[in-house]
Amino acid sequence: xxxxxxxxxxxxxxxxxxxxxxxxxxxxxGGSAAEEGRSRPGRTRPAVVLADRPYSSRSTxxxxxxxxxxxxxxxxxxxxxxxxxxGRAGGRPPGFDGQTYKERNAVxxxxxxxxxxxxxxxxxxxxxxxxxxxxHLAAILI
Length: 142
Prior knowledge:
Layout: E1 48-50, H1 58-66, E2 70-72, H2 77-85, H3 98-102, H4 104-114, H5 118-122, H6 128-141
Parallel strand pairs: 1-2
């Protein structure tokens, strides 16, 4: 799944906790945060997701569209050919903002510079705190 955005927010996936108490029907006990009027602190939704050509599938674009996130993903040549071959049934081409996509280059270069640190590239730290400290140090020195 794409991990880049023009506003430095990322797409996150949450897993259900296996230890959450459940009722006899198997549903989580108690209301959800949304039902109880509470919101989850620290969660943001990116406005735009920038991604490579392999993430250009219809399902990925549909999932982002349902969540109200604009996808800036170039279409591979084979997908363009398949759509054109189907004629009117192929549908409209997805929107693509080339100027916004150019911002992705800065993120890619920054990640490449950070991954020159062997410890960060290999992710050998046992503790997340140690990895995060190395990441902060690398960001300061870059």
